[in-house]
Amino acid sequence: MDPKPIITVLFLISATVIAAQEYVRPPPRKALHFPWSRKPSSLPQQVHISFAGDKHMRVTWVTNDKSAPSVVEYGTSSGKYSSVAQGESTSYKYILYSSGKIHHTVIGPLEHDTVYFYQCGGQAPEFQFKTPPAQFPITFAVAGDLGQTGWTKSTLDHIDQCKYDVHLLPGDLSYADYIQSRWDTFGELVQPLASARPWMVTQGNHEKENIPFLKDGFQSYNSRWKMPYEESGSSSNLYYSFEVAGVHAIMLGSYTDNDEYSDQYRWLKADLAKVDRQKTPWLLVLFHVPWYNSNKAHQGEGDGMMAAMEPLLSAASADIVFAGHVHAYERTKRVNNGKSDRCGAVHITIGDGGNKEGLAHKYKNPPPEWSVFREASFGHGELNIVNSTHAFWTWHRNDDDEPIRSDQVWITSLVSSGCVAEKTHELRKILTEP
Ligand SMILES: *[C@@H]1O[C@H](CO)[C@@H](O)[C@H](O)[C@H]1NC(C)=O
To answer: TM segments (predicted)?
Structure first.
């Protein structure tokens, strides 16, 4: 008798049993091992790019050689660089650690939706990136609390498989946690992705690294991850905004003053006053500590910022708010002032990038009425904004090493539901208050 049918049947039964079981959450994975290698001291390392105002990109890299020039040569065909830009550089000391030379060079104006080839400091290798389109559709990859473990690698591999234009990171990058060389290994780990698409980041608690009486906070973060704060009228790298293809994105700081008398709050008001929903119908906001969180981890930590800033963001009709901090995934209905509200924002906690601290498993029960989907697994999200009215959001869980699309939803914009128009007066009033 041919044993094949029996084996097939047995296989099908066992597969069904496995599928029916509850998903078993994987444990944290070990920190990645980065073998030490001697690199030529002028070799560009840790290359990443970020938006630097309309049609411009900032290229950032590190060299051990302190005399290496901060120039970027670039063009639209490989090996032929029709343009060159000169930038600036910085470096910092942290106790016994001395950073390499950190170069920041702004290039442009650049065409939309175009592949550029570039070289840093006149040195091979050549890198390439694609600029985002001028209009919808546009796709954002979103993952926070990355760190540098086996799970981080798995998340980055999955993001690499997707077609996206911009990476959004709501805080907690390297988990260097005072060990400065880990900022260097993190830079190396993300280079393949971050040199090819703009990485727009905001800070989390792991970026602080302050030591009372010795070190102010955010020294490494601000030196290495310079964002377009000057370009967006902000006086601090810890909060800024940018516009891309019909989207106005605001990156806020959970760990810098955010009360009504703060500089950040004043800047936010000024920034919101500049938003034109005809030009940028979608308004996205990112910060680290979630305001709507039904996980037991980090309960209430965002309350102060929420009390100060939610009325402002609600009057401005923010469409989607992304946060990290809690190592799990959660998506809410449209909410405002603690309850569901058709004109509120969708809040998404996506602090599940894969860091060494592992997942946050415990939830408050029963779930609040506003919580739609919550799960403690590592993964990443993709926001595909199709047009001025529709966006498709998916969350991809790292099922072992396969990305599995586990949550998905169409989100319609507040412009299309009439909320933006309904709130015109409320917004004007709040923005003109002294
Ligand atoms: C926007 O995209 C959605 C989803 O594909 C579609 O149903 C809708 O008709 C589009 N709207 C416009 C104005 O093109």
So the answer is: none
CA atoms of 335 and 420, how far apart (whole Å): 15
Q: Hey, what long-range contacts does 417-425 have (CB within 8 A, 24 or more apart)?
A: 417/342, 417/343, 419/317, 419/342, 419/343, 420/277, 420/317, 422/343, 423/315, 423/316, 423/317, 423/343
Same domain, 185 and 165: yes
Query: Which residues of 191-312 form beta strands (DSSP E)?
Result: 199-201, 240-244, 247-251, 282-286
410 CA closest ligand 1 atom index: 4
Residue 376 tokens read as 């403690």
Alpha carbon nearest to ligand 1 atom 12, residue: 387
Range of the domain at 98: 45-130
Cβ contact 347:167 at 8 Å: no
Q: What is the pLDDT of residues 67-116, one digit of tens each?
A: 999 999 999 999 999 999 999 999 999 999 999 999 999 999 999 999 99
pTM above 0.85, yes or no: yes
Ligand 1: nearest atom to the Cα of 386: 2
Q: Is 215 in the pocket of ligand 1 (CB under 6 A)?
A: no
Look at residue 154 and tell me if it is in a domain.
Answer: yes
Q: Strands, E, within 165-319: which ranges?
A: 166-169, 199-201, 240-244, 247-251, 282-286
